[in-house]
Design a protein that fits this description.
By secondary structure, the chain is of the alpha/beta class. Helices cover 46% and strands 8% of the residues. Strands 3-4-5-9-8 form a five-stranded parallel beta sheet, with helices on both faces. A two-stranded antiparallel sheet has the order 1-2. Strands 6-7 form a two-stranded antiparallel sheet. The relative contact order is 0.11.
């Protein structure tokens, strides 16, 4: 009995195994057919976009296509042995030579090649005036009226004289700190002239000329430097940290490059509000080594916002020369990496700067795109009054740039060649400005400082208890030791 049951069970198992084998063969054949059809359908030529590079596309379609490609690749790896017909596909099929990747199509190559870390020839530098202030005959340039040219030049002279007198005031102990724009006057004034007053400015700390152009008075500059009660920051900022809400000039911050992402955010706001204006942010070559610069560039490019990145590549980040700052061809090449239109210009050529910024502004607003400008210039003065630049660069180098590449002298030569300026006008104007600067200093010195209470307001709507306690402690201390505190600081 038991033997008979075992024999029947054995026969039943063998039968089922044979049946399963047959079913598996039929399923496998069916699967091969479906998969082959699916593969051919997936790798067939896809609709060609209008632009091979980045363009505004339907991200949903791209994502679907990308994930579909990934799905098929997984099927290829897991079922490659299912059908040998896959190897019979045409070698020149578009999908085997071009990858339709999100962001743009990418061609495949059989060559194992790395991109070069440098180019044989550096990116060219746009220039309009030669060293002697003469126009190049075949240069693309905007026409500048006599009125505009004279205003640009007199503002450059004002900035130059203002820097000299305020610098001397610091050396006399009348103010605590100062930073000049010596050698970079053209960048300040010419870029400001190319903007509109409704454009927003996010400066570093070497662009007071932009404020000057917009109407910031010499008295307002002096009030800020002396930190008196008329200073808009109520004496809380150190000297040269200017700001003006009325003139759309955001207050200077000493922290390197933090203004760059702020500028992009402001530009995004202008874009959402559909404003006919843009944002410009200034920074030095050292600022491009910060994370803020790179994050801001990518942010601006992806969101397509109207912002102008203006880099003053003046050769030195305090005592660090550019050859120790980066290995790339300056700053201009960094724009291409982020998909940002970029240009390198002569930062000591006022006309080149004016033309470049004018065109960049048009592009930024019309095309809703960021633009990067690298201006090659030279910081012909010390970094600040706290610096002695002769400790890390030669006096001969400084004097060569002050003479041969002086942007004020070059622009003066051009307006004089057109009969718009002369030596008499030069002497009279410089003398007048120097007297005006000396006068505003005397006025600013006599104005009392902001009250001690201003240290504790304008932060909280309702000051917290601990802040009130701190204010009371300071008030008590000053009253008790009045002789140790300045007499012109009211409580």
């Amino acid at each position: 009995m038991a033997s008979s049951c075992l024999t029947k069970s054995k026969n039943f198992i063998i039968y089922n195994l044979k049946s399963k084998s047959s079913l598996t063969d039929r399923i496998s054949a069916f699967t091969n057919s479906l998969f082959h059809h699916r593969l051919l359908h997936t790798i067939s030529p896809l609709p060609v976009r209008k632009h091979a590079g980045y363009s505004r596309v339907n991200r949903t379609d791209d994502s679907h296509r990308f994930f579909e490609l990934a799905y098929v690749q997984r099927r290829l790896h897991s079922t490659v042995s299912v059908s040998s017909d896959v190897t019979q596909l045409p070698v020149e099929s578009p999908s085997l030579t071009i990858l339709d990747f999100p962001g743009g199509k990418v061609k495949f190559t059989k060559k194992l090649t790395f991109t070069s870390n440098s180019t044989e020839e550096r990116v060219h530098c746009y220039r309009v005036l030669d060293d002697n202030g003469q126009l190049f005959t075949d240069v693309d340039s905007l026409e500048i009226s006599k009125e505009l040219a004279i205003k640009m030049y007199t503002n450059m002279v004002t900035l130059e004289v203002m820097d000299t007198v305020f610098y001397e005031s610091q050396r006399q102990g009348r103010i605590s700190f100062y930073a000049t724009t010596t050698g970079e006057e053209a960048i300040n004034i010419a870029s400001a002239a190319a903007l509109n007053d409704n454009d927003f400015v996010f400066p570093q700390y070497r662009e007071p000329g932009v404020l000057l152009w917009r109407g910031f008075t010499l008295q307002e500059f002096a009030n800020q430097l002396f930190g008196n009660k008329h200073e808009y920051g109520k004496g809380r900022q150190m000297p040269i940290h200017y700001g003006s809400r009325k003139l759309n000039y955001f207050t200077v911050a000493s922290t390197v490059a933090t203004q760059i992402p702020h500028a992009v955010g402001a530009a995004y706001s202008l874009k959402m509000e559909k404003q006919d204006s843009c944002v410009i942010t200034y920074f030095g070559d050292g600022g491009t080594s910060t994370a803020d610069f790179h994050a801001a560039m990518n942010f601006a490019a992806v969101l397509e916002v109207p912002v102008i990145f203006f880099c003053r590549n003046n050769g030195w980040a305090i005592s660090t020369p550019v050859n120790e700052q980066f290995r790339s061809d300056g700053v201009v090449v960094k724009g291409k990496a982020y998909g940002v239109p970029s240009i390198r210009i002569d930062g000591n050529d006022a006309l080149a700067i004016y033309n470049a910024v004018s065109e960049a502004r048009k592009m930024a607003i019309k095309e809703q795109t960021p633009v990067l400008i690298e201006a090659l210039t030279y910081r012909a003065g010390h970094h600040t009054t706290s610096d002695d630049s002769t400790r890390y660069r030669s006096v001969e180098e400084i004097e060569r740039w002050r003479g041969d590449q002086n942007p004020v002298k070059r622009f003066r030569a051009w307006i004089e060649s057109r009969g718009w300026w002369n030596g008499v006008a030069e002497s009279e104007y410089r003398s007048s400005i120097r007297k005006q600067v000396a006068q505003v200093i005397q006025v600013a010195e006599r104005v009392e400082k902001p009250p001690v209470a201003d240290m504790f307001n304008d932060v909280y709507d309702v000051p917290p208890t601990n802040l009130n306690e701190q204010e009371a402690f300071v008030q008590k201390t000053v009253k008790k030791h009045r002789q140790d505190y300045p007499s012109d600081v009211p409580l």
